[in-house]
Every structure is written in structure tokens, then in C-alpha cells.
Amino acid sequence: MGGGLGATGAWGQRFAPNSYLASFPPDSGYVRVAVELGWIGLFIFCLLMFTILKTGINNYYLIKDPELKTYCFAMTLMVFCI
Fold it and tell me: Model pTM?
């Protein structure tokens, strides 16, 4: 499994200063998730992101109202940026 939540970066240096992961600087959010939660947590996180994006894209094409379509597009893009 992983090292535990808050085990890397600044949080790791603050709460677990003597651990190996406290001095490990994660480059991205996915590396942080993989190190803290393990490969199972990374898989669940990626599955969640895929489901959110798939639902947002499907709803974008189903919505007829232009204003709601713009809101759906904006929210889907915000998740895509993560």
C-alpha cells in the first residue's frame, strides 16, 4: 500500500519528520496520490477522474440549453485541469 495521507512534502516534514517520504518531493498530484495511497488508491483516483470526465462529456452533448451547456463545459474543463 502507500505511505499514508500527508506523508510527503511539507506535510510529511511537519508531521513525520523522520520518515523516508518526508524528504520526497512529489512532482505532481498523481505522484503524490501514488506514494501516499499506493497503486490501489491511484487506480481508484484515476477511475474517479475518468467517470467524472465521461459523465461531463456525455451530459454536455445531451443538454440543449446553451447556458447550462456552458456551465457543464466549464465544470468538465476544471476537472480536466486537475
Answer: 0.78
